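Throughout our pipeline, every protein is held as a single compact record rather than as scattered files. Nothing more is needed to write down the fold, since each code stands for a local backbone conformation. The record that follows is passed on verbatim for readers who wish to inspect the format.
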Amino acid sequence: MDIGTLNYLSAQALIAGFVAAGIDEAVISPGSRSTPLTLALLRTPGIRCTLAIDERSAAFFALGLGKASRRPALLVATSGTAPANWLPAVIEASQADIPLLLLSADRPPEIQGWGANQTVAQSALFSDFVRARHALPAPRLALDQAFSPEGLWRVAARAVEESSWPQAGPVHLNLPFHEPLIPAGATPAWLPAPVLSLSQPPALPQTEAIRRLATQISGRPGAIVCGELPARSAAEKNALFAALTVLAARLGCPLLLEPLSGLRFGRHWQTPAAAGARTCVRYADWLKQPQVQAALDATPPEWVLRIGPWPVTRPLQNFVASARWQALIDPAPAWRDPQQRLDLLLHASPLAACEALLQQDLQPATPAWSAAFAAWEAAAAAEVETEPTAVPPSLHPASAAATLDNRPGSGRCAARRIAAILAGVPDDTACFIGNSLAIRELDSHSGCGPAALDFFGNRGASGIDGNISSAAGIAAIRGRALALLGDLTTQHDLGGLALAQGRNLVIVTVNNGGGGIFDYLPQASLPEFVAGWRTPQQIDFAAAAATFGLAYRRIETPQALTTAIREAFATGGPHLLETC
């Protein structure tokens, strides 16, 4: 058997093992050394292949696929610096528990370390950011041997398992190939792999831990804070929302929902569980008010039960930190305690833990405790309802010298912009929210409701890189998506616009003249602020959209933004809407 055919058979066996384990998405960046993998993928039934020239965009696109589907996608690149471009997305996947399978082609080991071109040490390229790494040998056969795919089938099944459980994340397979890389003759027919059954036990709470938690929170003033959770079906949302609202009612405590919890919007708001629910979604506004701060200083929460990662916004972080006792429910074997204040870490499914808590003898806190939160929430909601509907055209900031009061990034403008976006997005749409100001504005101003919307963000490492590509990956799974991004975030991933082609993706870029998030940080007082942090840019987003074949519109008012979003989704295809 010639070496080219052996390379192909080895790659095909590995891919067949992935397909048998349930993998149906692959993202390929073209290259020479990865030819056996690329050829096998393109000739494998049952797997959808996306070609992406830029490896960094490819990796964030695969991240978006995994985020939306909760299954790992295959990511393929050639040797050398190509897989090094994956690193930012690998870090994000590791920090955010997103499954991802990295297949880097490599030069054979006998030329490593001898100065061969396009040869770098790849096996440990991603350091501690992968759940597992496998350095496979280059395909070789003795003269009297026949090719056997069984070992590669099991390597694939193991990698899928390691990427999915017990803590989802990236897994790296480094695959060296000798030349020639193309079979000398016709390639053998595709050989499917047998399905290897993988059983992943549910993360059930320990009885003793539930009893301790119940004892600590029963009859005392506290709060449940629900942060980012993986994408869930409508039925899963309904079940979790019902359990959380019943638990909050039994404890007489508020339930604070972050937007990435997936619980602020959905059909569960039309279920009986929503009636009288003690939910709070406008806490980012009222937690900053002096009278609220004074009340909570006088009577801080005795406990906070966190579900999901550390909160996004500083006001909620400070509220959690003020609690005398903290617990975290997290199914992953991780330690998410940045302030090192946890008193109980319960590794369990949030739904299973809530249902187990409801079996305990729980007593409510005094009615005045939850009544205060309800009053603060109602006052914030009433203030939004009294906002004037006639909005003058927004002013594009000429430089970072504009004041915060009249800048489009101000609170009132942000509230109108978020309301306009939510009014324009149709039901059953995935919404990707960029970092910096975008996620904070959504947290403050989204409200809640029965619209079937799911929110995603790259909050593992909270970078501004790869956001368009991630949104495109989510759109590929969900059918359509909206991305809300800042101007620097959009500029940082202009190459990702290539992956938007042919997809129902509407990108709303808020052009506030540079890094608006820094206006609210201590750096704003420095004389070098504009040059070193605000960094206003002069990019022409209309030209960028035209370059990559996206429809483009410049939007000046919230009403026009709502209309433009509706028309973009009705028309279909990728759109870039620039606003301020």
